[in-house]
Amino acid sequence: MIRILLVEDDAWLAEMEQAVLSEAGYEVFIAPHALAAIDFIDSSVPDVIILDVLLAGSTAFSLLNELQSHIDTNLIPVILCTNLAEQFTSSQLKQYGVKRIVNKTTMHPQDLIIAVRAVVTAEERDEDLSN
Amino acid sequence: MNGGEGKYEVTPLIAAAHELKAPLALVRQLTLRLEDDTLASADRQRLLRQVILTSERALRLTSDLTRSSRLDPTLFTLEPINPEQLCRDVASELTPLFEAYGRSVTVKTHRHPLLLVANRDLLRRILLGFSDNALHYSMPGTAVSMQIKAFNRAGIIRIGVRDYGPALSSDMWRKLQKKLKTAPQSIHARPESSGLGLYIASQFAEAMNGQIGVVRHKNGATFYVELQASSQMSLL
Lengths: 131, 236
Fold this sequence. Notes:
heterodimer; A: alpha/beta; Rossmann fold; five-stranded parallel beta sheet; B: alpha+beta; Heat Shock Protein 90; five-stranded mixed beta sheet; 47% helix; 19% strand; globular
């Protein structure tokens, strides 16, 4: 089963997104802030990370820098799910391992499933090519 | 791009738009979820409750913005107020929201009755704002605590709202100190928000001849407002 780490500090949104993704067959773990996310990743590397940008405590960029600085975490695909989507472009975020940006203000809950499927499929394709 | 430097000037209007975006986006997401016909009745009720409470939070901000634009001293009166009673009223008002988030809000009882000079509406708004902020930063299962302290020699009474959450880094602490004194900052210059709530609170406090501040703890923070003690206090 694909394991997703959902880093979201709004408890109700996290709960709702967890429910939607779980119904789609994914195993979802919630981290309310960057430190909790790092703690989780230290004990268990997820297949995908869905990350909010503005978090209580450190911002998403602290976490992204941390992930990029370790060889065992810099390949985890990250989906940025944020209210600030319009301020970023995919090319700006590529260096941080961000594969997709989902705009929280316009998305449908099901869009998260589509984004996860897309990055997982891309990862599998990349693995096939490298084998 | 490091999430640490400002990219453009943030006017109060932009800050307000940003601050309202999060609750509006949440209401939209919760409502879209309600369209799912297969949801259990209990889940539906819970989502509806969350929509209502989130809308109320957003409306509080719009109301504060309106109020902050009309801070002419002739439009409000300062009067002796029992801060403990006001804290209890605020706690009572916020209890449904806190309970829905799995947290609680408490008021620490002071041994001696205290009175301060304030405008009830403005002080209530400051405390609601601090408490709302504390709710966001506190960990599930913890209690946000309102505390009142008298500095008799200075003739000042401090009302603090203490949360128990992730520690503030030194960098964030410096930014927070700056935010308390200045207009809303760049959205990229601080975590989570533009600082609009603190800016409004500082305006409300100044209108009552007071000030706001923050104390950093290893497991959270206390945001406080300091106001003049009422001379009637000595008569009690």
